[in-house]
Design a protein that fits this description.
The chain has 258 residues and is mainly alpha-helical. It folds into two domains: 68 residues, Arc Repressor Mutant, subunit A (Orthogonal Bundle); 156 residues, GntR ligand-binding domain-like (Four Helix Bundle (Hemerythrin (Met), subunit A)), CATH 1.20.120.530. It is 67% helix and 2% strand. It contains twelve helices and two strands, in the order αααββααααααααα. Strands 1-2 form a two-stranded antiparallel ribbon. A hairpin with a 5-residue loop joins strand 1 and strand 2. Helix 5 runs parallel beside helix 10 and helix 5 runs antiparallel to helix 11. It comes from Azospirillum brasilense. Keywords: DNA-binding, Repressor, Transcription, Transcription regulation.
Length: 258
């Protein structure tokens, strides 16, 4: 009955809570599972209380209590004007990080090396946890990256690829880490697809992403981690090469001066 705290026999019967567990706690766990699976990402607005109650076959009272619990725990936040969204810890940190990376090349390299560690872990994890639907989605994003006539969209496709792998990894912690640095990541992706960074290397970058996808599709964790590490290692080398060239151009011509 909808007015009581009961769970439908047809809604995830293997998750029906024990008599000692409150229905609101069960609802909170279901919402956290959606966040973990990447169905709800940082910054995304949740369905309304009524819709959630209908989806989970519980009362709105239980949904309201679950949402309040998750807000208290820091997973959700209220939206001005009504509603709830998944917490994103971006904001002030984004701006500070962007500035640190902009003013010092070593900080940019540090960020790429940190991404190496995180994204190789995520690629490995995706081979273990990705559903077939998530793997197919990664493949579709990869196909879009290789389409001709998508000038100006390569950076968005690149970001979508890394987000798709992140969602396939099934870790809300990792998704929140990406959300924290999403703006600077977006700027990095934009730069990777402009001159002088790309300069005839678009096909090579797509091959890097294809190696990650193929390893995930084959469920080869070691190969996926290596492919992600190699891709970002190449990115790091490009940053260093371009930095050295910029320094060379900025040096005075000592021969001419003499």
């Amino acid at each position: 009955m909808k007015g009581h705290d009961t769970v439908s026999d047809t809604e995830e019967p293997h998750h029906v809570p024990a008599s000692s567990q409150r229905i609101s706690e069960w609802v909170a766990e279901r919402i956290l599972e959606r966040i973990a699976r990447g169905e709800l990402v940082p910054g995304e607005r949740l369905p309304g209380e009524r819709q959630l109650a209908e989806q989970l076959h519980v009362s709105r009272v239980s949904v309201r209590a679950a949402l309040q619990k998750l807000k208290t725990q820091g997973f959700l936040t209220a939206v001005q004007g009504g509603g709830t969204r998944v917490v994103s810890s971006a904001g002030a940190m984004d701006g500070a990080l962007t500035e640190m990376v902009r003013v010092k090349h070593a900080n940019l390299c540090d960020l790429v090396e940190i991404r190496q560690a995180l994204e190789s872990w995520a690629a490995r994890r995706a081979t273990e946890r990705a559903t077939q639907e998530q793997i197919d989605h990664i493949g579709r994003v990869l196909a879009a990256m290789g389409e001709t006539g998508r000038d100006g969209k390569q950076a968005a496709d690149d970001m979508d690829f890394h987000l798709a792998v992140a969602q396939a990894a099934g870790s809300p912690v990792y998704l929140h880490l990406l959300a924290t640095i999403r703006d600077i990541l977006g700027q990095m992706m934009e730069y990777h697809h402009t001159e002088p960074f790309a300069l005839g290397r678009e096909a090579l970058m797509i091959d890097h992403h294809r190696a990650i996808y193929d390893a995930i599709r084959r469920r080869d964790a070691d190969a996926a981690a290596v492919a992600a590490t190699d891709h970002l290692g190449w990115v790091l080398d490009r940053y260093n090469d371009l930095s050295r060239k910029a320094e060379d151009l900025s040096r005075p011509d000592t021969d001419a001066a003499s």
